[in-house]
Amino acid sequence: MGEKKYEAAIEAILFTMGESVELEKIAGALELEQDKTKEILDGMIKRYEQDDRGLQIIELDGAYQMCTKREMYEYLIRIAKQPKRHVLTDVLMETLSIIAYKQPITKVEIEKIRGVSCDHAVNKLVEYNLVCELGRLDAPGRPLLFGTTEEFLRSFGVHSIEELPVLNPVQVEEFKQEAEAEMHMKLDV
Predict the structure, then answer these.
(1) What does the DSSP 8-state code read for residue 161?
(2) Rounded Cα–Cα distance for residues 17 and 119 (Å)
(3) ∠21-25-28 over CA atoms, to 5°?
(4) Backbone phi, psi, residue 23, to 5°
């Protein structure tokens, strides 16, 4: 393997690992002597410093890491400050609907309605700032109560929960029957 291939392998290792990697481990992966590996790394460090690149390789107590140059931080901050577009999957929408119509509600109550665990969905909705903890239920274990946030109202274009569409009782009954039929099909399998 030529030196360019070793450099490519080192670059891939450092980029993928994301944290510092000991010289010994890099040399072992390349099946090279540590002295030769260090020589290649030193050459790479110099080239990354000389070129107008956004990355650098740094040495940290016998280990090496690929990271962003300090001069590039302002660009990273700009991109990090841009709002993220959150995608609401069917599971998240279902969980959010339950919380919106039944708030304040506990995870156990949500799971009873959905029939499956809701930890991930509730955590994502909290992360997206659509749902928040409202307090604790005065019951054994003092479970957390969840409800919607002002961001939820803004996102869905309503001024208050009272403006949410009223569910048609006939449609609710149809949904219940469909859900029960699905449960029976799963139990029969």
Answers:
(1) G
(2) 29
(3) 150
(4) -55, -45
Q: Which of 102, 109, 111, 116 is nearest to 172 (CA)?
A: 102
Q: Please report how many Cα atoms fall inside a 13 Å half-sphere around the Cα of residue 128, on the Cβ side.
A: 22
How far is residue 29's CA from residue 12's CA, in Å, rounded to a whole number?
12
Q: How confident is the chain (189 residues) per 10-residue block, as mean pLDDT?
A: 90 93 96 95 92 89 92 88 81 93 93 90 94 92 94 88 82 74 66
Where along the chain do the CATH 1.10.10.10 domains lie? 3-73, 90-188
Of 13, 47, 43, 55, nearest in space to 30 by CA: 13
Q: Spell out the residues 6+ positions from residue 152 whose beta carbon is closer than 8 angstroms to its own.
A: 96, 100, 130, 131
For residue 153, count other CB atoms closer than 10 A to its CB: 17
Supply the CATH classification number for the domain 3-73: 1.10.10.10
Angle 90-102/107-114 helices, nearest 10 degrees?
Answer: 120
Write down the CATH number for the domain with range 90-188.
Answer: 1.10.10.10
Residue 131 region by backbone torsions, left for phi larger than 0, else alpha for psi between -120 and 50, else beta: beta
